[in-house]
TrEMBL record:
<dbReference type="GO" id="GO:0005829">
    <property type="term" value="C:cytosol"/>
</dbReference>
<dbReference type="InterPro" id="IPR015421">
    <property type="entry name" value="PyrdxlP-dep_Trfase_major"/>
</dbReference>
<keyword id="KW-0663">Pyridoxal phosphate</keyword>
<comment type="function">
    <text>Threonine aldolase involved in threonine degradation to glycine. May play a role in the removal of L-allo-threonine.</text>
</comment>
<dbReference type="Pfam" id="PF01212">
    <property type="entry name" value="Beta_elim_lyase"/>
</dbReference>
<dbReference type="GO" id="GO:0008732">
    <property type="term" value="F:L-allo-threonine aldolase activity"/>
</dbReference>
<dbReference type="InterPro" id="IPR015424">
    <property type="entry name" value="PyrdxlP-dep_Trfase"/>
</dbReference>
<comment type="pathway">
    <text>Amino-acid degradation; L-threonine degradation via aldolase pathway; acetaldehyde and glycine from L-threonine: step 1/1.</text>
</comment>
<feature type="domain" description="Aromatic amino acid beta-eliminating lyase/threonine aldolase">
    <location>
        <begin position="9"/>
        <end position="295"/>
    </location>
</feature>
<comment type="similarity">
    <text>Belongs to the threonine aldolase family.</text>
</comment>
<keyword id="KW-0456">Lyase</keyword>
<dbReference type="GO" id="GO:0006545">
    <property type="term" value="P:glycine biosynthetic process"/>
</dbReference>
<dbReference type="InterPro" id="IPR023603">
    <property type="entry name" value="Low_specificity_L-TA-like"/>
</dbReference>
<dbReference type="InterPro" id="IPR001597">
    <property type="entry name" value="ArAA_b-elim_lyase/Thr_aldolase"/>
</dbReference>
<protein>
    <recommendedName>
        <fullName>low-specificity L-threonine aldolase</fullName>
        <ecNumber>4.1.2.48</ecNumber>
    </recommendedName>
</protein>
<dbReference type="InterPro" id="IPR015422">
    <property type="entry name" value="PyrdxlP-dep_Trfase_small"/>
</dbReference>
<dbReference type="GO" id="GO:0006567">
    <property type="term" value="P:L-threonine catabolic process"/>
</dbReference>
Amino acid sequence: MKMVTRTVDLRSDTVTKPSDVMRAAMANADVDDDALGTDPTAFRLESEVAKVMGKEAAVFVPSGTMGNLIAVLVHCEIRGSEVILGDDSHIHVYENGGISTFGGVHPKTIKNNPDGTMDIDKIEAAIRTPIDSLYYPTTRLICLENTQANCGGRCISAEYTDRVGEIAKKHGLKLHIDGARIFNASVALTVPVHRLVQAADSVSVCLSKGLGAPAGSVLVGSKNFIAKARRLRKALGGCMRQVGVLCAAAYVALSENVSKLEEDHRKAKIIAEGLSQIEQFSVDTKSVETNMVFFTILDTSVLSPKRLCQVLEERGVLVLPSGSTSIRIVLHYQISDNDVNYALTCIKQAVHQILTEASPKHGN
């Protein structure tokens, strides 16, 4: 077997390694005990994220999953509450059912459209009215995701979010945004990030995806919301001591890497265009808005996602299946143009290898 001398990791934008600048910031971070509320580097990061997002306050959490969980539990303090969210949303699909397990919160799912939105009329129709309270959970929260990952990293517009926010206010509900990749949406839409979340009562912002920090998310909202969030963070085991070591790297990510997201989006479009020229694949190039590319294998009887991923790994290109017929590719700032070209070449070669191995002539 050929020795792999190069790795191009396109599994996710979570695989980035801390830059030298981040490592230096971590080594030199001014730290204290964040459980006592006295870590200056954590305070600096939280203040900056709150300011950028246009909210009153913020709290650092170990992960986006914990950030979303805390947000839902704060907004749905009474067990038996219900949250309206997309059927393909990260909170519903990938967070271990935490809102139900830990908070007794019932998910009411609405089908995500291909562009990541949910139909406005369906959201409003899903809200339980007080007259139904004897029989049904009580609706207290609506959740959106921006960008919407399972829909291909699609961007949710400020106007759409405003409309959902209006419905929430009309019915006395809260609005939370899972903004794991909200900066990708901001860059792609050329809309300030605070405008995208203006209608939201809370937002979870991940700093370890496209921005490249080694770990961590920040949850933002009102001062009262964040005070409750801090108590829940402690209860869930997310309150750490000298967390400024992590926050120092996250601050570098926030300061230096937002401007690099546009390049990730450009490279994603190059990959999508290249994949569209391979006859065994189907790619909706127009749907590639940010750093994600999903492509479908037209005939999986021989060329399955699993087999293609295996052959690509042998060539040093790492991708993940996203279903029984599709594969997801995610760009990040540590992927170069040369890496993109190499990955496309390897994909073409892998397809040829698999089809050749499966041909009757090859079998003889």
